[in-house]
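Quick check before the chapter quiz. The format below is the same one you will see on the exam, so make sure you can read both the input and the output lines.
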Amino acid sequence: MTAKPRIQDVLWMAAGAAVLLACILVALHFQKNQNPAAQLDFKARRVDLVGRMQLDLASASEAEKSAVLAVTDQDSQMFAEQARAASMKVEQDRRELEELLATGGTQGEKDFLAQFTTTFGELQRIDKDLLALAVKNTNLKAYSLAFGPAATALKEMDAALARLTTEDAQGLPFTATARIAAWRLLTLIPPHIAEENEKKEDEMEAFMTTEDAQVRKSLAGLAALPQFTNNPDLATATVSYTEFSKLKTQILALSRENTNVRSLSISLNEKRKAMLVCQGVLSALQQAILAEPIAGVTYGTPVRPRRL
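Here is the expected output.
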C-alpha cells in the first residue's frame, strides 16, 4: 500500500520549486546582462549622451558669448535664444542619461552625474542673470548717444560761440570758458560708460557737475551783455547745450545700469569657472563609462599582441 505524501512534504516541495524557479530567472537575467553585444550597446548609448551634452554645452557657451558681444538688441536676443535652446538640450540629455543609469552603470557614474547636475544648475542660474543683462545693451546705447546726438549738440554750440566771438571780442572770456568746459565734460562721458566701479562713477559725475556749472555761468554772463541781447548765435548755443544736457542725463542713466560691462565680467569670470567644472565632470563621467569592463572585449592595445 502506497503512503500518501504528507501536507508538510508537499509544502516543502512547492517551496523548493519556487526557489529553483527564482534561481533560474536570476541566472537568465544575469546572463542577459552579461551579453557582450547588449553591454556594448548600453555603453554606446551612455557615451553618446555624454558626448551630446558636451557639444550642446559648448554650443550654449558660444551663443552666450555672441549675445554678450553683439552690438544690436536684435542680435543679442537671437544669440540669447540660441544659448537657452542649447542649454535645454543639455538638460534633456541629462535626464535621459539619468534614466539609463537608474537601470545600470556603476555607482561612480551616478556620482559623477549627480555632481554634474549640481554644477549645471549653478551654470543655468548664472546664464539666466547674464543673458538678461546682455540683451539690454545699455552701455552700447550710451556710447551711441555720446558719440552721436550729444557730440553733435556740442559741436553746434561750439560753432555758435565761435561766431559770437568774431562779432564782439568782449564776450571772449565767456565763450572760451564755456567751450573748454563743455568739451571737457564730453571727454568724461566715455570713461564713465566703461567704468564698472560705482564710486569712480560718482567721482566722474562730480567733475561733470563742475564743468556744467562753468558752461552755464559763462552762457549767463554772455546773456547779461547788452550787445548780445536777442543774439541768434547765443540762442543757438543755449538751445544746443540744453539738448546736450538732456542727452547727458539719459547717457548717465544707461551707463549706471552697466549691462554690457556686467555681463562681460560675469561671462569671463563666474561663467567660465562654472563651465570648466561642468566640462571636467562630463569628461570624467565619459571616461568612467568607457572604463567599464565587458567580458571578451578589449580596448586599445591587445593584451597579447601578435608577433609579426
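If your answer matched, good. The two ends are 77 Å apart (CA to CA).
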